[in-house]
Specification:
Low-confidence stretches: 61-66
Helix content: 40-55%
Structural class: alpha+beta
Number of helices: 23
Radius of gyration: 30 Å
Mean pLDDT: 92
Strand content: 5-15%
Strand order of the largest sheet: 3-2-1-4-5
């Protein structure tokens, strides 16, 4: 067994050497020159051993970089945990330290480097730290760079900053190896200053905010919550938390708990809909830790909005909003135009102030009106807008709301699966069926539709055809609708679309589209390009030429030599 163990350790060392050779094949010096806030690249390594196989990689979830592997003959018996702890780990630690000290490209390794081992042993599987290394010189250089950056680019700064700098800074400020006693108030102030400096461009601002929220979420999940909760993954890979009884949070309102609440609210307000549950879970943990602010957030909202923006009441209607749960509760006291007008203005102002667009309406009203469109959820949100549509004088206000609400990759919170729909959908659909003057609104809406995760536009398109038919006025909007409809839609408009005037208009509308897009439009009308080809073959004169031209537009162009 001793000679086999020696061979195994040598193989592990060889795998480590190969891994260093692999990660060393980078121009590290050039990479870290991008920003003084980066002093290295790799901060983690993992050695795995099971059944004679040794592998070293950057992370357990590294699916992009190839793992460095060696293969031994499977041993006659499994290693024991004692052998791993007492004979393997100490020798690997010393060897890894030698590799770090002699590595020819120091910029490859970050100021802090952790090397772990996962071993299959007689007792099961054991994961152990092999080496925890800190380069003090790099650490001091990084701390100086952080202080200089905050002073010159943020405290004294007047110009937008780079997202890459925010990516590193946000992680450094939450790194307790750099800042053992993080100042929560100061960290939040720095983050808010970054967002303020970069508020001029929406996409750039979103990138900065995403970097900040990701760093905060990592800190919450990997550093803060594990101190106070036992964690485990359920069968759906969702994290379950169990409160530790032997450790208490010293201050339930100041310090780290501030960062937890800031993280939760940021996720709820700015991250996609599917992340909202994570933000709520963080708030629930804060409540368990005894935070009165967290309890208040759960009941009243995050406090981000002024009181007059989240609550309104008069003799016609009462409106209350909670951004934590993304709900707007509307109680209609009198079924009147003024009631819905005031509620619409309430919602529009909320959205203008940054209220989550993936919200839902909890409606208390005696009227149960729904839009004449198949496939829509019969929710409180749907019912509110259908009720409001009954008042023609509110249609301009509904358009204003729709323009404010429409957002790609967001959906009303009370819809899911095949009934999911983008905020603004009910207002757009109702207006689109009410009057031709809203065709432009419908077309703008369709440009934002994510047809991989939403199909309610199919029902609207069908209703649109039934309402307006196929003609010069409806074809541009109809094409926009079909282009965003799913393959499940079928339209009975083939005879009308084969009228020469309409076919000519259709050709004009598809001009400039990719062949696959034209084919997507052809399918629900003719049943596919082949059926369109058959229709063109049967047609005569100008009609045949027009259908043939449409068929060519829907056919991929072959490369010409």
């Amino acid at each position: 067994m001793d000679s086999m163990l020696e061979d195994l350790i040598n193989e592990m060392k060889q795998a480590i050497v190969q891994w260093f050779e692999f990660i060393g094949d980078k121009d590290a010096e050039q990479i870290v020159k991008r920003t003084p806030l980066q002093v290295g690249i790799h901060d983690y390594g993992l050695l795995e051993y099971a059944k004679g196989r040794v592998s070293v990689t950057d992370t357990e979830l590294d699916f992009l970089s190839p793992k460095v592997k060696t293969r031994l003959g499977e041993p006659a018996e499994l290693l024991s945990e004692e052998q791993v702890r007492e004979q393997i780990v100490p020798r690997l630690a010393a060897f890894m330290q030698q590799q770090l000290d002699s590595f020819p490209s120091p910029a490859i390794i970050d100021y802090k480097f952790s090397f772990w081992g996962k071993f299959r042993v007689q007792e099961g599987e054991v994961t152990l730290p092999i080496l925890q290394h800190i380069d003090e010189a790099k650490k001091e250089r990084l701390l100086h760079a952080i202080a200089s950056y905050i002073q010159t680019k943020l405290d004294d700064g007047k110009y937008p900053t780079k997202p890459l700098e925010t990516f590193f800074l946000s992680r450094h400020l939450l790194d307790e190896s750099l800042f053992p006693d993080p100042d929560a108030g100061r960290i939040i102030s720095v983050f808010e200053h970054i967002l303020e400096l970069n508020k001029g461009k929406k996409e750039r601002l979103a990138e900065h905010r995403s970097n900040i929220v990701r760093a905060l979420r990592n800190w919450v999940e990997e550093t803060f919550l594990p101190r106070y909760f036992e964690t485990r993954k359920d069968e759906w890979r969702q994290t379950e938390y169990t409160r530790k009884t032997d450790i208490q949070l010293e201050d339930t309102e100041q310090g780290p708990i501030e960062l937890l609440l800031y993280t939760a609210v940021s996720i709820i307000k700015y991250e996609p809909s599917y992340s909202k549950s994570t933000g709520l879970a963080f708030l629930e943990r804060a409540v368990e830790l005894g935070s009165a602010r967290a309890s208040r957030f759960m009941k009243e909202g995050s406090g981000t909005f002024a009181k007059e923006d989240v609550h309104f009441r008069n003799e016609f209607v009462e409106c209350t909003a909670n951004d934590v749960f993304s709900t707007v509760t509307i109680t209609i006291k009198q079924e009147a135009e003024e009631s819905y007008a005031r509620a619409l203005r309430f919602i529009c102002r909320l959205l203008q102030q940054g209220f989550p667009k993936n919200y839902q309406i909890k409606l208390k009203s005696g009227v149960k009106q729904f839009l004449p469109i198949k496939g829509l959820a019969k929710s409180g949100t749907h019912r509110f807008f259908a009720n409001a549509m009954e008042y023609p004088k509110l249609h301009p206000l509904l358009k204003e709301y729709a323009r404010e609400a429409m957002e790609e990759f967001e959906w009303y919170a009370d819809t899911e699966d095949e009934k999911s729909c983008m905020p603004g959908s009910y207002a757009v659909f109702g207006l689109g069926l009410a009057d031709r003057s809203y065709f432009g609104l419908v077309e703008d809406y369709m440009k934002l539709v994510d047809d991989e995760h939403q199909s309610v536009q199919n029902g609207f398109t069908t209703a649109f055809v039934e309402q307006y038919g196929v003609n010069a006025e409806s074809i541009p909007t109809l094409v926009a609708c079909i282009l965003r409809s799913t393959e499940a839609i079928k339209l009975k408009i083939k005879p009308a679309m084969e009228e020469e005037a309409n076919t000519r208009l259709l050709l004009q509308q598809v001009s400039g589209l990719q062949p696959y897009e034209v084919e997507h439009i052809v399918y629900p009308i003719w049943g596919g390009v082949e059926k369109l080809k058959a229709a063109a073959a049967k047609a005569k004169g100008e009609k045949a030429a027009l259908l043939s031209e449409l068929m060519q537009a829907a056919s991929p162009k072959k490369n010409q030599r």
